[in-house]
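Subject: two folds for Thursday's group meeting

Dear M.,

Sorry for the delay on this. The cluster queue was jammed most of the week, so I only got both jobs back this morning. I'm pasting them in the order they finished. Each block is the input sequence followed by the predicted structure tokens. Could you check whether the formatting survives your parser before we put anything on slides? The first protein is the one we discussed after the seminar.
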Amino acid sequence: MEISEIKFDAAGLVPAIVQDAETREVLMLAYMNAESLRLTLETNETHFWSRSRSELWHKGATSGNVQRVVEIRVDCDADTLLVFVHPAGPACHTGNQTCFYRGV
């Protein structure tokens, strides 16, 4: 599938669920725009669009906890990405392995 076939929302974003390629644990949810998806495909490391800072960010650029991309899948509606990675460290800025460490 081509980037042009991805259904980005009105803000130009698509949700990207990041999952550990080995354990299958869901690590985080972030958003990609066409540029961050292109960078992710080119570098084989995750890049996202920060909605709060309105800028591109390379996961692990400051922490060293980069995510090496193994595979990217798109859902049946082409409006959500599933990114399988080999993480170099915790996904969450809190230091937890996953951002989904709290129950409701």
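Second protein, same layout:
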Amino acid sequence: MDKKRKIANVNRAILDFYQGAEVSDRLVQAILYSVEAGGKRIRPLIFLDMLEALGLELEESHFQIAASVEMIHTGSLIHDDLPAMDNDDYRRGRLTNHRQFDEATAILAGDSLFLDPFGLLSEIDLPSEIKVRLIAELSKASGVKGMVAGQMLDILSEGQNVALEQLQAIHANKTGALLTFPFLAAGLVAQVPSNTLIQLRQVGELLGLAFQVRDDILDLTVEFDKLGKTPGKDLLAEKSTYPSLLGLEPSYQFLNQSLNQAQTILEEAATDYPFEPQSIQNLIESLRLHG
């Protein structure tokens, strides 16, 4: 299935979930305002591409799983943009949720997008043991053992001189955990052997690290019209970033090294448990930047 159809099906799965949610029209409007703002849908696409690579034909339950991780991601962006966090006015090229609506509505929209995915996962047409594993892994990736904890560490590091190991720990949780989930989820749905699941986790962790390094570089080097949000915010907030710690050119090198490692492990996994990794390799390759 091509990329455009995959994204359309993920978007539909989210819209279907919120259709008929009649308690508060304003809350649903705020949720869908951010969901429909665009974005690359990287996490859902990784999951769906990985399923196809593992030989599965895509079905409704797969799009619902892909939707669940995109919902968590979108909720995190709404909260990230709030005045108490990154205090940004623009996201994906248009007003952030709290600017379009108000702070209270944005908080509640983000809350909904954090909680609703677990209800969605509970309803999918898959064996109960797989659903429980998916719910557990998404919770781990999202909360106090993953993304939210990483955000807390990121806030605490502002204005501080942190070591590379500390910076990696921050972003392994803040960004990496939710990018690792699609690889794990695909492995769980396809019921791959445990050693292959470990390799897929490693690929996801490396991709998550690379994605954050890439984001740090783009924050310094890309203008608003291409970035879709206010550039230079990390610098103004005195956030710990890879360019601030390593320098810009070494950050490019670090990014590409991380992507190389991810590709190598993916190739090894495809040798141990035969599958077709080319679409994932292409996605990894697309994240490269050249200084």
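Two things I noticed about the second structure. The first strand starts at residue 90 and ends at 91. The two ends are 34 Å apart (CA to CA).

Cheers,
T.
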